[in-house]
Design a protein that fits this description.
- The protein is mostly beta strands.
- It has a single domain, classed as Sandwich (Tumour Suppressor Smad4), CATH 2.60.200.60.
- The protein has no helices and eight strands.
- It has a two-stranded antiparallel sheet with strand order 1-8. Strands 2-5 form a two-stranded antiparallel sheet. Strands 3-4 form a two-stranded antiparallel sheet.
- A hairpin with a 2-residue loop joins strand 3 and strand 4.
- It is globular.
- The termini are close together.
């Protein structure tokens, strides 16, 4: 069935939120849909480890602007997991 779509402003389990998105044409509930390589704010107990984080491990089959779309459960480059997201849009 798929997982919740991740969008600009959605968080990972360390509290890092998506702060910029590499595509600018696909929106979910008025927020840009996140794709692999989107920037994540500095977060976590050790900012040195969790600065410069990007979203990663998106869908193998769903893309926006040719880039894999991020879902709840995907692991960011810092190893924190995407959480929450928009539950009305599911991404496989």
């Amino acid at each position: 069935m798929g997982e919740n779509a991740q969008r600009f402003g959605d968080a990972n389990t360390g509290g890092g939120t998506i702060s910029s998105v590499l595509q600018s044409t696909v929106f979910v509930n008025s927020k840009l849909l996140s794709v692999d390589g989107s920037s994540v704010t500095t977060h976590g107990e050790d900012p040195a480890v969790h600065s410069g984080t990007i979203t990663a491990n998106g869908s193998d089959t769903v893309k926006a602007g040719g880039i894999a779309v991020n879902r709840t459960g995907d692991v960011d480059s810092c190893t924190h997991v995407r959480t929450g997201g928009y539950d009305k849009v599911k991404v496989g």
